[in-house]
Amino acid sequence: MHAVPWLDGGSIDPSASAQVRDLRRVPIHPDHWYPLAWSSEVRRGRALGVLFAGEPIVLARTESGTLFALEDRCAHRQVPLHAGVVEGDCIRCGYHGWTYDSTGRCVNVPYLGRERLPNGVRAYPCREVHGLIFVFPGDVALANARPLPALPSVANKAYKTRRFGRVVKCHYSFMHENLMDMNHQFLHRRQMGQMRARARGRRRGEGWLEVDYTFARKGKQPVGEALVFGASSKNGDQDDQDVMTVRTEYPYQTLQIRSGDGTLVMDLWIVYVPLDAAQRTNRTFGLLSIRRPGIPLALDLAWPLLVWFTERIFKEDRWIVELEQEAHDKQGADWNHEVFPVINELRDLLRNCGGRTVIALRKAGDTA
Amino acid sequence: MHAVPWLDGGSIDPSASAQVRDLRRVPIHPDHWYPLAWSSEVRRGRALGVLFAGEPIVLARTESGTLFALEDRCAHRQVPLHAGVVEGDCIRCGYHGWTYDSTGRCVNVPYLGRERLPNGVRAYPCREVHGLIFVFPGDVALANARPLPALPSVANKAYKTRRFGRVVKCHYSFMHENLMDMNHQFLHRRQMGQMRARARGRRRGEGWLEVDYTFARKGKQPVGEALVFGASSKNGDQDDQDVMTVRTEYPYQTLQIRSGDGTLVMDLWIVYVPLDAAQRTNRTFGLLSIRRPGIPLALDLAWPLLVWFTERIFKEDRWIVELEQEAHDKQGADWNHEVFPVINELRDLLRNCGGRTVIALRKAGDTA
Amino acid sequence: MHAVPWLDGGSIDPSASAQVRDLRRVPIHPDHWYPLAWSSEVRRGRALGVLFAGEPIVLARTESGTLFALEDRCAHRQVPLHAGVVEGDCIRCGYHGWTYDSTGRCVNVPYLGRERLPNGVRAYPCREVHGLIFVFPGDVALANARPLPALPSVANKAYKTRRFGRVVKCHYSFMHENLMDMNHQFLHRRQMGQMRARARGRRRGEGWLEVDYTFARKGKQPVGEALVFGASSKNGDQDDQDVMTVRTEYPYQTLQIRSGDGTLVMDLWIVYVPLDAAQRTNRTFGLLSIRRPGIPLALDLAWPLLVWFTERIFKEDRWIVELEQEAHDKQGADWNHEVFPVINELRDLLRNCGGRTVIALRKAGDTA
C-alpha cells in the first residue's frame, strides 16, 4: 500500500460537510438541453409520452416529419396528450377531442365556438441531433443561447458509435460519481481483472471538472478487455501508456481514452435524465464512439463482444448505484464518507450547478 | 366549428371554482342503499367480505337462505369474520370461534360463560333485489325511509338485461362526469365512428340532473353499433331521431335511449361504489336493459356482440378515467378546466349531495 | 357452554388498557441473543446480509471457518458489505475495495495510505449453536453475561429435531399470543378436529410466564394428529392425560407436551426476529424436538407426515396473524378486546420486557 501524493488532507471533514445541502436532494438544473428520447422512438404520425423530473412531456412527430414537444396533459381534464392522436400539424386529446398546435395553442374544441377557446398548454423548445431528441425544460428565453452538446466523434466516420441506455433507479449524482471515481475498478474485477487506477492530475473551470487516469495491471489481462481496448503491451505492475480522462461538464459527462501518441481511441458521452419529481430514477442516454482500427471490419467483427462487455460493465454499475440509493433512502441523509478529493470537488460542482428547488408542477394554462 | 347556443358564458370561472371543495375528495354519502355484491357471489352457508369506502362488511347467507350483513371483523382480535364459518343462523370467527348472530350480537365464546359475553359487532340493513345485494352503510334510522332504486326495465319481460361491472381505480365522480358528457364520443371513435353529440336541453331538481342528447353522424356507421342500436335511417351530417337522456339521481346514474316514437329502447342503470377509504377505487355495478325487437330471438342472437361492444366501450372509459385519477393524484388538486355547463352543474350536485367528511373507521363494540 | 372458573373478572377493562402503550409498536429488546440465520446459510468464504429490526448486519465466514458479524454497510459509500468479497480474515467492499477485519476496523483502502485509514464499521458479538447463528444486537457490554438459550432436547439423542422457519408479516407479539392462547384450536379444526383446550393453571416470574393446558376431544381424532401425537386413549368429551405447557421466556417461546407419566414427548423452541425497523415482519426460527418412540425408525418413517402436519398448522397460524396485523395497520391502534387473562398477562410481559424506543439507525463510524 502506498500513499497517493496528490491527496489533499484538508478536504476531508465529514462534520463540516454535514451542514451542507444533501446532494441527493439537489434537483438537476432545468436550463440545459436534455435528451428525452431516441429519434427512433417517435415515428411519423405518432406521439410519445416522456418525463423530465416528474414533468410529463409529449413528443409528437407529424406525418410530414416535424417534431414538437408539449406539456403532456390536456388543459381540459388533464389526461395525457400522448394518449391522443396526431392529426395534421396538431395533436388531439383522445377524450373529448380538444386540439393543440405545435406551439401549444388550443385550436379546436369540437363542441365550442372558436371565439371561446380556452388556453392551451406549454410548449418546449425541441431539437433533434445524432438520433437524440433534445428538449429544453427550463426558462425558454435561455434556450437559444445554450449550446447543444457537440459530439464530434459521433459525426466522424473514423469512429463507430454505439447508442445505449436504460433506466437506473438512483439520483443522477451517483452516476457522475461512479464514472469519475476510477478506483471502482474493483467492482469490475471479473471483466477487467486486477487493475489499479492512478489519478494523474485534475483540472477544473466554470461548470466543469476533469481528471486523468493511467492504469497499472496486476496479473493477466482478460481476453474480452484486450479485444475491446487492445492488448496492453506490458504485464506486471507497470502503468499502461493510455490516458483516460473523465470529465463532468454539467450536466453531461464524458470519458475519453487517448493512446500514447495522443489518438482518441474511445469517446463516451453520457447524460442521466431524472424521470420522477424526487429524481430518484434517471434514464441514461449514452453514445460510445470507438475509433476504427487500421484493419477494415475488425471493429465491426468485435462489435458484439464490445456490446456484451459494456452491457456487463453497465449492469454492475447500475447494481451498485441502486444499492447506494437504497442506502440513502433508508438512512434519510447522505452518510457517505468520501476520501477522494476529485469526488469531493465533483460533489461541490453538482451542488453548485444544480437547481435551486425541486421543480414544481405547473398548472395547465398558467404559462399559455 | 359552431357555437352551441345554450352554453352559458357566466358559469365558467376557474378562479372562483378554485376556492370550492375539491370534488375528488368529497366522500360519497353513506345514507343511501349501495349494492356491495351480486347475489350469486354469496352462496348458501358462505360468507363474502366486501368493502364500502374502506369499511369492511361481511355478507353471510345461512343454509336456509337468509342474508345478513355485519361489520367484517371479530370484536376479539379484529380478524375478518368472512374468514370464519357460517353455522346455523350465525357466523363464527375462524380464529377462536367467537360467534355472532345476524344482528351482530356475540352469542358464544367457547371458553367463556354466557353471562360474561362481550359486545358484538355492527349490523347493516341489507336487502336483495334483482340479483343485487344492497346494504345501507349510513345512519340505520334512515334506512327504511330511503327507497331502493326502482329498476322497472329489469323486471319487465319486454327487455333483456345484462349485468356487468368491474373495479375502476378512480373517484366515483369521474365516472359520473364521463357518462354525462357525451362529447366524449371521440374516445369511442373506433367503435362508434365519427359522431357528434348535441345537447338538447337539461333539467334539474333536488338531488338529480339530466340532459338530453341527439347525435349527428359524420361518415359511415360501424356494423357493430348498427347491430346494437339499430341502423340509423340517415347518413351524412343529419341528426338521428333517437334521444338519449343521461341522468344522475344521486348516487345512481341512468342512461336511456328513446326512439322517435317515444319507445324506451335502452335503459342503463349504474352505480359506482367506493371501495377504499380514500375513495380512489370504485366497484361499478351496471344493469343494461335492451328492449326486445319484434323478431323473436334476434336480441339473443345479437347478445354476444352487444357484450363485446359494451365491454370495449367500458374498457376505453375505464382507461381514460383512471388516467384522470392519476393526473389528480400527481397534481394533488383538481386542475380540470371544464367548459361544458352540464358538467359544471353535475359537479355542484355531487359536491352538495356528497358526504361531509371522510367516513371514520368505527371501533368494534362502539355501536353494539 | 360453561364458565371456566379461573378467569379473573377484574382483568378485563379495555377503557383502562386504552391508555397504555400500543403493544404492536413496542420494539423487541435488543439486549438478547437472536438467531439471524441458520449455519448452513453462511458457507466458507461467503457473506450473508441479514436484518435485525431494520439494522443491516453481514454474517461472514472465512475459508478457515471463523464467523463474524459486522454492520452491513461500507463506511465509504454505504453499500452493503455482503455484496463484497470475503478475503482471508477480512471482508472487502465490492465497490472500491475498502477492507474490514472481523472487529470492523478498516485495514485497507487500496488508493489511500495506511496512516490515513478512515474509521471502520460496527462489529456484533456472534455465536453459533445447534445450527443457528446468534447475534447480540444490543449493548455489547451485556453480551457475555446474557446466556444463550439452553436447548437441551436438541442436543439429546432421545429426540429428533426439525428445524423450520419462515417470514411472517406481523409484529412478533401476535406470534407470542397466537401460541400461548390454545383456545385458537378452532383455527386448526381441519387438522386437529373438534378439541377444547382447558387452561389448568399458570405461573409467572421475572421475564417469563407459562400456562398449562389439557385437551378434551369432541368427536373423532384425525389420523394425522394421532400419528404425530399418538392415539388418544379415550374418545368423547373427556380430557386427555397429556399436559401442554406454553411458556414465554422473553424473547423466546417454548411449547412442551408431557405424557401422563411426566415424559417430555414434544419440545418446541421458537423465536420471532423482527426484520424491518417498524417490526411489522419477523423471521421465525423454530426447533421442534420429538421424543423417539420405543420402536426404532418409527419416528423417521412418520417424519414426512409430521413435516406436512406442522407446515399446515404453521400456514394457518401465519395466515391469521397476518390478518391481525393488517387489521392493526388499517385501524392504526390496538382494538383487540382480550378476555383471556393469560393473554392479558402476556401482553403486559411483552410490554415490560420490550425495548424503550424504536432502534435508530446508527451512522457509520459513530461506534468504531
TrEMBL record, chains A, B, C:
Residues 33-135 form the Rieske domain. One of its GO terms (molecular function) is dioxygenase activity. InterPro entries: Cholesterol_7-desaturase, Rieske_2Fe-2S, Rieske_2Fe-2S_sf, VanA_C_cat. It holds the Pfam family VanA_C. Keywords: 2Fe-2S, Dioxygenase, Iron, Iron-sulfur, Metal-binding, Oxidoreductase. SUPFAM superfamilies: Bet v1-like (SSF55961), ISP domain (SSF50022). It comes from the Bacteria. This is Aromatic ring-hydroxylating dioxygenase subunit alpha.
